């Protein structure tokens, strides 16, 4: 769930990048599975 919160933060800060973040997150989630460590 922490990953989703991070996405929301980016969404609030920069809506334009929100799309890129979501797209990247989807790719990373599929590639890494569920090990995202952005922070």
What this model shows, in words?
There is one protein chain. The protein starts with a helix and ends in a 7-residue tail after the last helix. It is an all-alpha fold and 39 residues long. The model has no long low-confidence stretch (mean pLDDT 61). The longest helix has 18 residues, at 15-32. Helix 1 (2-13) packs antiparallel against helix 2 (15-32). The protein has two helices and no strands. It is elongated and about 25 Å long.
Tell me briefly what this model is.
The chain is mostly helical and 39 residues long. It has 2 helices and no strands. It has helices spanning 2-13, 15-32.
Arithmetic mean of pLDDT: 61
Structural class: mainly alpha
Q: Can you tell me the residue ranges where pLDDT is under 50 for at least 5 consecutive residues?
A: none
Report the radius of gyration as a whole number of Å: 10 Å
Reading the helices and strands in chain order gives HH
**Count of helix runs:** 2
Considering DSSP H and I runs of 4 or more, what fraction of the residues is helical?
Answer: over 70%
What is the quaternary state of this protein? Answer: single chain
N-to-C CA distance:
13 Å
Give the strand tally. 0
The largest β sheet comes out as: none
Overall spatial form: elongated
What percentage of amino acids are in beta strands? Answer: under 5%
